[in-house]
Amino acid sequence: EVQLLESGGGLEQPGGSLRLSCAASGFIFSKYVMTWVRQAPGKGLEWVSSISLSGGRTDYADSVKGRFTISRDDSKNTLYLEMKSLRAEDTAVYHCAKDRVAYGSGSTNPYDIWGQGTMVIVSS
Amino acid sequence: DIQMTQSPSSLSASVGDSVTISCRASQGISNFLAWYQQKPGKVPRLLIYAASTLESGVPSRFSGSGSGTDFTLTISSLQPEDVATYYCQKYNSAPQTFGQGTKVEIK
Fold first, then answer.
1. Mutate to test the interface with B, among A47, A93, A98, A100 (most CBs of B within 10 A)
2. How far apart are CA B76 and CA A87, in angstroms?
3. In a 3-state reduction of DSSP, which class is residue B64?
4. Which residues contact A73 (CB under 8 A, 6 or more apart)?
5. What residues of chain B, 9 to 68, have a C-beta less than 8 Å from chain A?
6. Count H helices, E strands: chain B?
7. Which chain B residue lies closest to A52 (C-alpha atoms)?
8. A95: which strand partners?
9. Are B106 and B13 in contact (CB under 8 A)?
10. Cα-to-chain-centroid distance, residue A45
C-alpha cells in the first residue's frame, strides 16, 4: 500500500525551528517529485515547497522562502522540511504529497497520494 | 504569480441536482489544472487532472472542462457523500497555487 507518514510537528515559539519528516512506503520514492502542502486551521490549501528527483531543484512559496528548506534522502525514502524563524502564520497541518506520475520535471504534476499531516503550532 | 479564483465560495443544492464550480486563472495555464475533493477531517483526494481527465476510481458523475484561464468542475447528480470542499490547483509551474475552495452542502 502506498503510504506517506509525517512526523515532527509540535508547539514551537515564534522564531523557533522545527524539522518535519515524511516517511514514504509502497512506491519507489526516488522516482517521484515530492511536495509539502499546508492547511491552516479552518483555511484552504497552500502549496509550500516541492523538490525534484535527486533534490536537484527546489521551489518555495514566497511566504516561506529563505526560512524553510526542503530536502530528501532517497536511501531512507524520506522527505524533510526544515523550518526556521517560525511565525504565528506558519501554524497549520503540514501534508507531504506525491506526484501523480514518476519522473516529473519540477512542479508540473498534481498529487495522487497525501499523508495525514503533522500539526505545527507557533505560539508563545 | 498566477492567482486562482474559485466561485462560488459555497453552495447548497439538493440530492440529484447538477452542481457547477468555476475556477479562473489570472493567466493562461493551458490544461495544467487539477481538482481535489476534501471531505471534513480527511486529506484531499485528486478527482481530475489535465482539466478534464478523471482520476482512477472517481465516480463518473464528476467531470471537468476548460482550458487557458477558465475551468469548470461539474457534479452531474449530487450525492450525500459529495459533501466536501473542492479545490482547483494549477500545476504548470511553481508556485502550484490552489484556489480558495468551494464548500458544497446538501440542501
1. A47
2. 43
3. strand
4. A80
5. 32, 34, 36, 38, 43-46, 49, 55
6. 0, 10
7. B94
8. A37
9. yes
10. 13
Q: Amino acid letter at B73? A: L
| Residues forming a β-bridge with B65 | B72
Contact at CB, A107 and B87, closer than 8 angstroms:
no
CA distance B4 to B77: 26
Quick one: pLDDT at residue A60?
Answer: 97
Helix, coil or strand: residue A60 = strand
Q: What is the mean pLDDT of residues B48-62?
A: 98
Which residues make Cβ contacts (< 8 Å) with residue B56, sequence separation at least 6?
A: none
Return all residues near B45 (Cβ < 8 A) that are at least 6 apart.
Answer: A114, B36, B37, B38, B39
Cα separation, A115 vs A46, whole angstroms: 15
Residue B107 has pLDDT above 90, yes or no: yes
* Chain B residues inside the 8 Å CB shell of A117: 43
- The alpha carbon of A20 is separated from its chain's Cα centroid by a whole number of angstroms, namely 7
Q: Please, what is the average pLDDT of chain B?
A: 97
Pick from A44, A110, A114: CB nearest B43 = A114
In chain B, residues with a C-beta closer than 8 Å to the C-beta of A95 are 43-44
- Of A8, A44, A18, the closest CA to residue A123 belongs to A18
